């Protein structure tokens, strides 16, 4: 066969293959060495013919990351052909890696012995076909989806149509109904027209009524406003009520007074505040919600149980004052308690007693304190009675005076008779009445203590009784005077003794003065003789004798003054005079006797006219100046000044002497008081000068006082009213 004779050589075969339009390559060996690749294959790979003879993995390295190399190796090993369609491959196309789609086959070519000879790789670029197919597939899918949706929409439309038909039917039947209603409406309309006419007339009536209603409405509105106002107020009241309720609850809890509520016939203790629990000496849990008889059996049987029952029956409150009870204490003892208690019935809406409000006050301590005061008063009264003293008490408002039995007895008044201050003052001896009245007035108005000795005329015995009366203002509160009260003692006997003594002193003084006056006359006669004889020693001795006689004369005069003072015989003989003139005069007299001192006089300008006893005021100033000389031995200057203000004149006498200790200042004006120390003991005196001065000033309704500093000096002041 010719065919057999013209067998093609391998190279011819390869050339023919190279001409094939299908991309073709042949790989010999397991390393896939490219034996041959035609132009079409080289163009797929984007390579030139140089790569023939290189392993595929080196010639087209981008294939290494794709599945082809693995597939080729498998074909070599398994010697089984592999065919694939529409396979994507990443290839260098125009210098760029691009994806193209191929139908390809790796054909295992074996020799006659069945050994692997080569792999014939043929491939066709089916990218266009593939993409066209893909597009067609996509179009189909989209169409199918649209189809599906269309069907769906169709189905919904059909369903809607059915509904629409149903609704249409309904509408038709409604339409029919409307038509029949329309007819009814027409006839109704006619009726309505008729009715309308009626309505028009009614409307007029309505308008009239409406106007009335408007007026009523306005009234209602204002009533409404008032109501709103009242509601607001009520709201406020309600809030206050709430508050006061809270306060009440608070007060109840914290009240210093015991409060409890008992309910029912057995007096069950429903509520009890802390104070009552304390007074009861119980524990809250032991008494609460228990009948009184069980909770507090010990006290219940002391009469309280009966009182509680009594309140239930009589529906009246029971109030007890100062009840003495034996009360248990928490430590199991008992104590005597004094209590004030109130058992108040609590009524329900039907007027029945549903419970009892107990209010309990423990006054044990106050009671004991009061008893102590009462006992003290009794003792005090006993002491006063046994000393023969009387007590008196005047109401400053009404002027009524209450006297104790003894006081009435001393005054010679009937027992328990009410008497007024004015009536009592009328009983006072005429010469003393003004002093007593003034002191009493001063005591009541200015709370000045009252302590005076004066005679009264006993209306029973018609005798003169000397009294020492003390008094003091007592206050309930600083603004509210309760009484002006004090003690009254009969000092007639003592006074008579004193009067006798004073009479004696007066008599003795008088008797002493007579010989002294004679002695003075003789010394004067002697003096003129001795002066003529020129006996200097005797003249000097006689001058000193004369000074001593003057001193003695003054002392005797002082005693006489005191005796007169006590027996009320110092009477003022008042006249109008210029006080400055008197002070000049007296200063001159003092300087005559004490020429070593300076008297600096600083009088107030103008004349100082007073209505007073000139001699007595002169006596006071002389005494103050003499004291300044006596007790300011080391200083020379004495300052005397006058000062006028508010209807009075103040005189001051100042020295720069030894001064007076504070403890002595108060007592200087007492009778016979002298400061006792080594300095004063060298100065003669009886301590009556300042006492007399104070008495004289007081009888002029003035006052006298001293300001002094030890070792610096003293200033004595007195003030008397101007005319
Ligand atoms: P007498 O001077 O006779 O003792 P007075 O009644 O005049 O009595 O004085 C009472 C006392 O007051 C005196 O003893 C004296 O201690 C004191 N006294 C009075 N005036 C002064 C004075 N100016 N300075 C110091 N002490 C005085």
The bound ligands are: adenosine-5'-diphosphate
What are the low-pLDDT stretches, counting only 5+ consecutive residues below 50? 1-5
Largest sheet: 6 strands, antiparallel
CATH fold topology of the largest domain: Heat Shock Protein 90
CATH architecture group name of the largest domain: 2-Layer Sandwich
Q: What is the mean predicted local confidence, pLDDT?
A: 88
Strand arrangement within the widest β-sheet reads: 13-12-11-16-15-14
Which outline best applies?
A: elongated
Q: Which superfamily, in CATH terms, is the homologous superfamily of the largest domain?
A: Histidine kinase-like ATPase, C-terminal domain
Total number of distinct structural domains? 6
Helix content: 40-55%
CATH class of the largest domain: Alpha Beta
Helix/strand-derived category reads alpha+beta
Taken as a percent bin, the fraction of beta residues is 25-35%
Using only CA atoms, what is the Rg? 72 Å
Number of strands: 23
| Termini gap | 194 Å
Tally of helical runs:
20
């Amino acid at each position: 066969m010719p065919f057999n004779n013209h067998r093609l050589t391998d190279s011819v075969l390869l050339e023919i293959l190279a001409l094939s339009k299908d991309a073709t390559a042949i790989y010999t060996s397991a390393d896939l060495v490219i034996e041959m690749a035609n132009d079409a294959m080289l163009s797929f790979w984007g390579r030139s013919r140089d790569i023939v003879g290189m392993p595929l993995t080196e010639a087209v390295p981008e294939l290494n990351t794709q599945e082809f190399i693995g597939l080729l190796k498998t074909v070599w090993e398994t010697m089984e052909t592999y065919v694939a369609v529409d396979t994507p491959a990443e290839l260098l196309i125009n210098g760029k890696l691009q994806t193209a789609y191929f139908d390809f086959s790796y054909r295992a070519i074996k020799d006659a012995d069945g050994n692997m000879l080569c792999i014939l790789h043929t491939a066709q670029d089916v990218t266009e076909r593939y993409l066209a197919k893909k597009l067609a597939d996509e179009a189909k899918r989209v169409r199918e989806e649209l189809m599906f949706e269309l069907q769906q929409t169709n189905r919904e439309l059909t369903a809607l149509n059915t509904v629409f038909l149903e609704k249409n039917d309904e509408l038709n039947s409604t339409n029919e109904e409307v038509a029949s209603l329309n007819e009814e409406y027409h006839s109704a309309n006619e009726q309505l027209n008729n009715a309308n006419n009626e309505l028009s007339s009614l409307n007029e009536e309505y308008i009239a009524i409406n106007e009335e209603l408007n007026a009523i409405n306005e009234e209602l509105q204002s009533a409404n406003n008032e109501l709103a106002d009242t509601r607001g107020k009520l709201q406020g009241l309600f809030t206050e009520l709430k508050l006061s309720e809270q306060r009440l609850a608070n007060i109840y809890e914290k009240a210093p007074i015991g409060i409890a509520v008992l309910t029912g016939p057995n007096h069950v203790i429903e509520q009890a505040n802390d104070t009552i629990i304390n007074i009861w000496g119980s524990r809250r849990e032991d008494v609460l919600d228990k009948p009184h008889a069980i909770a507090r059996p010990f006290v219940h049987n002391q009469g309280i149980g009966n009182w509680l029952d009594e309140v239930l029956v009589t529906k009246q409150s029971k109030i007890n004052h100062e009840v003495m009870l034996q009360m248990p204490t928490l430590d199991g003892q008992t104590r005597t308690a004094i209590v004030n208690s109130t058992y108040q019935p609590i009524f329900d809406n039907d007027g029945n007693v549903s419970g009892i409000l107990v209010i309990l006050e423990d006054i044990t301590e106050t009671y004991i304190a009061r008893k102590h005061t009462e006992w003290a008063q009794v003792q005090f009264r006993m002491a006063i009675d046994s000393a023969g003293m009387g007590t008196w008490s005047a109401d400053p408002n009404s002027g009524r005076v209450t006297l104790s039995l003894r006081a009435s007895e001393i005054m010679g008044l009937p027992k328990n008779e009410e008497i007024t201050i004015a009536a009592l003052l009328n009983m006072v001896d005429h010469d003393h009445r003004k002093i007593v009245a003034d002191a009493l007035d001063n005591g009541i108005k200015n709370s000045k203590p009252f302590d005076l000795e004066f005679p009264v005329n006993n209306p029973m015995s018609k005798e003169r009784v000397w009294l020492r009366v003390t008094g003091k203002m007592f206050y309930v509160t600083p603004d509210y005077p309760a009484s002006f009260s004090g003690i009254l003692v009969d000092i007639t006997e003592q006074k008579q003794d004193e009067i006798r003594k004073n009479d004696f002193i007066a008599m003795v003084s008088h008797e002493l003065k007579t010989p002294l006056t004679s002695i003075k006359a003789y010394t004067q006669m002697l003096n003129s003789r001795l002066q003529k004889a020129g006996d200097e020693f005797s003249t000097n001795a006689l001058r000193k004798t004369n000074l001593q006689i003057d001193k003695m004369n003054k002392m005797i005069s002082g005693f006489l003054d005191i005796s007169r003072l006590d027996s009320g015989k110092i009477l003022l003989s008042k006249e109008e005079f210029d006080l400055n003139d008197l002070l000049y005069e007296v200063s001159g007299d003092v300087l005559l006797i004490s020429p070593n001192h300076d008297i600096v006089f600083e009088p107030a300008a103008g004349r100082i006219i007073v209505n007073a006893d000139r001699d007595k005021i002169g006596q006071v100033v002389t005494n103050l100046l003499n004291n300044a000389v006596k007790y300011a031995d080391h200083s020379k200057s004495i300052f005397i000044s006058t000062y006028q203000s508010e209807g009075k004149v103040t005189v001051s006498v100042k020295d720069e002497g030894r001064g007076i200790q504070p403890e002595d200042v108060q007592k200087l004006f007492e009778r016979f008081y002298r400061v006792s120390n080594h300095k004063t003991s060298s100065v003669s005196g009886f301590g009556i000068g300042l006492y007399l001065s104070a008495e004289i000033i007081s009888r002029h309704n003035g006052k006298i006082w001293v300001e002094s500093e030890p070792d610096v000096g003293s200033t004595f002041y007195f003030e008397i009213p101007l005319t």
